[in-house]
Amino acid sequence: MTAAQVEAVMLECIPIARAFFQIDPAWKVIVRSNPDIGGAQIMIRNGYRDATLEYGAGFDDAAQAWEIAAHEVAHIALAELLVFKSHVAAHLEEDKLPATLELAFTLAMESMVQRLADIFVSACPCPFVSNVVRAS
User: Fold this and answer.
1) What is the model's pTM?
2) In angstroms, how far is the first alpha carbon of the chain from the final one?
3) Distance (Å, rounded) from C-alpha 8 to C-alpha 70?
4) What's the 3-state SS for 60-96?
5) Contact at 8 Å (CB) between 54 and 5?
6) Using one digit for the tens of pLDDT, what is the confidence trace for 57-88?
């Protein structure tokens, strides 16, 4: 898929996922291409209710772009956990979580995010993909 095609699918998915996850409409989500990354990533600024979703190359089809967009929006749905993490870290000596706690938090967060994304994709499949299989 071209970057423009990926972005079009993501821009279609994001408002549907935001509504599905009941994300506060005050959140601003910016989508932009970043050729230096594979897949996608989201940067969240909780205090500003602002998120930037960056995507790179390597998307095979619209369904994959839809699923990745849903995954990244699910991160916004769980953004309050990042606030919790930062407050806990602020009370530690080095103002950051020890490596083992950081790893545990990251694994738990990714597991929850993926579960939410899977629920969304099951309820709201990519509209750009036909599930009809034609007999040959």
Assistant:
1) 0.89
2) 26
3) 14
4) CCHHHHHHHHHHHHHHHHCCHHHHHHHHHHHCCCCCC
5) no
6) 889 999 999 999 999 999 999 999 988 888 88
